[in-house]
Task: structure prediction
Amino acid sequence: MTKILKNRNKTRLLLALYARPRHPDSYHYAILITPKITPKDNPPIPATKYHVKNTLTNTEAGLSQPWRFEQSSLENIHDDPRMLVAVVVGKVLSVEMVEEVFRRTPIYQADDPDRDRALEFDCRTWVRDALERVRGSGGVSGLMEWETLEEQALRYVREKKAEGRWTAGGAVGGGDKRVAMLDLFTRREIYV
Result:
């Protein structure tokens, strides 16, 4: 039976953007599920992270970089390496339903018969597809359309960069710096 959360402090769905040191003008995309976070909360903030990644693999056929889905538990989002920002994008009504949607969101490989999807596939397109699917599932409330979510997250990370958040001595996702967080429901920063 699916567990439906009914209190005001519903679990939250977050879009997270990570630094890509070799590609500084782009980001790694992931989805997080966390308890409700308020400005007065002190770390640690636990989360479950959902994303796809491609890792260099040595097989008998040679080297390849297959995409794979990964779900992992984080004891504290502030310790997740390279996380730049996390944006609250939805309220989770059913964690089980949302996780099932994520697990069923297609992953395309380079040799996939759908060449167009395979060529455009990356962590960003997987997050986009997963959020669009979960928006129609009934497992999340308040989830805006993808274009709006991505635009808000990218604007937020640009603002933080312009403020010098990650320059000389500033930590990325750890140390004394907490992850920059924005709540799209309240339109306020949670951590600055």
In short: The helical segments are 95-104, 115-120, 123-135, 146-162.
